[in-house]
């Protein structure tokens, strides 16, 4: 085990030294510190203003975290995809004279370290935000870090290293766990629909006794309730069950014979994960194993239109055409917001714009096939203007963003009874802001090239993009507050059109010269 810890420690030190030699690292650190400081101040104000600064609130936060984190972790372990090994591990560590169980613990070390990080955040949050006594938070921290980590390590060995259970049976077990999660999700939607989404309704759900009776996860919650809220008959019994079950899991994991039967699957997953990382660095999507349909006929296009029609032909061969996971995300957002809020406020339109802005900020943007076009030499031989090539190369991404924007804006707008013109304007704003994000990515690639790396280009893109969008949003809000809030939509629309056209013109130079690739 000392060898594995040395490999981890040495690898971390080498990566740290390499990072500190790059000036951009310090810029990232400054941005991260500023973001964390702003987030901390914002959370502090929200907690104080909503009177959420009490022990019961901390219990709600911990319960939500546990029910979101633990079941998904168990599911991934059952599918043998919860631990990320690298291809180098398959060549060196798997072949080393080290116990397969120790290799599993080494692989799960990142997950255990994340538990420790969350434990520190909960410790600081409980003391600074929720006014919990220090001795209670120390107990919470120790239990979160040590007991939860011990149980997770035992579960990793039982699910990953269990060679007595066949892959087929383990797959059925993971499907059963997925079904249980689906049932819990349906119950949660029903509860929110029936009782509404408020602190009172969430608190009532958290206090439901049956929640603590659920094996492992519920028993874990009971221990934190025992520490923070005091003993009751139910949480004492469930806490004892949790300690006994953890001891049983550790004993079973200790006695379980494990000879490295999972190595083959782990090595295959390591190769797939590395291939996925390489595709992400290139801006590609999917898992590299997409199935294509056979289609009859074809499409025709002259000049720059040929770029669009070639992409259309590729999408027609795809299994789901232009539709993907982002459509499901947008539908989920629309469904949740439509059921949890009635749009009674006069600022409901502003709330919709805020939701769209959050989605645009959190998602990576529409990459699609335009970046692949830059690698094709024939693109630069087409006798068309660069801006025309850019337009047809990104046209399909605008269509996809229009579909996603329509799903969210129509679903939320109809449920909130917003005016039709606000819904239509919101869709156009979503398309325009996504276009700005995409064109800024192309512009960053044109200005910086490939020499500065993907992360530097993303930072450059984020700074300029945030500045441009922030100016427009601030201008629209000021005019709306001074004159009329209905002016926010047209001002944002006009501003977005101007910025989109400008950034598009600047980004079009990337489609002009082939040598810019190097």
Automatic annotation (TrEMBL):
Pfam families named among the record's database cross-references: ABC_export
Transmembrane helix is among the record's keywords: yes
Chain ranges passing through the membrane: 24-46, 58-77, 112-132, 138-161, 173-192, 320-341, 347-367, 402-421, 427-448, 460-483, 489-509
UniProt keyword Membrane present: yes
Keywords, ordered alphabetically: Membrane, Transmembrane, Transmembrane helix
InterPro entries: Put_ABC_export
Coiled coil: none
Protein name in the entry: ABC exporter domain-containing protein
Source organism of the structure: Bariatricus massiliensis
